[in-house]
């Protein structure tokens, strides 16, 4: 029996999942134990996913994408599975704007994964800065 020389591409983009978990955890100021309590995924598993050494099972992926409030398809349709046609960007109205922009950048076949990641992070920082400056509305006096 001949083996195909191509390596099987993973269905789950664990690198993307790990980055998303770390980013959200840091934005909320949570420890791995805090996230473990909220998601029912062990802190050691979360650490391995964040560091790119863990391969979460389907239940953990479902729990984590639910906690992240991102569609599971976003984690399943990473660049590893990209063919000649860019995968469609799946939009869910409850998603924050930086995640939507990041999905569009990753789907752009004219950008390398590194460029898409850099642009996404740049947008996220700018979005956060402008969002904070927009919150400085004068309070009503009584």
Please write out the topology:
Elements: H1 14-28, H2 32-39, H3 43-50, H4 58-68, H5 72-76, H6 97-107, H7 113-134
Helix pairs in contact: 1-3, 1-4, 2-3, 6-7
Distance between the termini: 82 Å
CATH architecture of the largest domain: Orthogonal Bundle
Largest sheet: none
**CATH class division of the largest domain:** Mainly Alpha
Which ranges are low-confidence, i.e. pLDDT below 50, for 5 or more consecutive residues? 78-85, 136-142
Gyration radius (Cα, Å) is 18 Å
Number of strands: 0
The shape is globular
- What's the tally of helices? 7
User: Number of domains in the coordinates?
Assistant: 2
Provide the residue-averaged pLDDT: 75
The residue fraction in helices comes out at 55-70%
Structural class: mainly alpha
CATH superfamily heading of the largest domain = lambda repressor-like DNA-binding domains
- Kindly estimate the percentage of residues that lie in beta strands according to DSSP: under 5%
Order of helices and strands: HHHHHHH
CATH-defined topology of the largest domain? 434 Repressor (Amino-terminal Domain)
List its traits:
about 140 residues; 434 Repressor (Amino-terminal Domain); mainly alpha; globular; 2 domains
């Amino acid at each position: 029996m001949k083996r195909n020389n191509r390596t099987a591409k993973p269905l789950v983009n664990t690198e993307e999942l790990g980055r998303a978990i770390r980013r959200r955890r840091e934005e909320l100021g949570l420890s791995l134990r805090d996230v473990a309590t909220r998601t029912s995924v062990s802190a050691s598993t979360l650490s391995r996913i964040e560091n790119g050494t863990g391969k979460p099972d389907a239940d953990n992926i479902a729990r984590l994408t639910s906690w992240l409030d991102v569609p599971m398809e976003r984690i399943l349709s990473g660049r590893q599975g990209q063919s000649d046609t860019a995968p469609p960007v799946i939009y869910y109205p409850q998603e924050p704007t930086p995640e939507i922009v990041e999905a569009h950048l990753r789907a752009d076949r004219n950008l390398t994964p590194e460029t898409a990641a850099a642009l996404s992070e740049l947008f996220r920082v700018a979005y956060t800065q402008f969002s904070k400056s927009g919150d400085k509305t004068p309070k009503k006096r009584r």
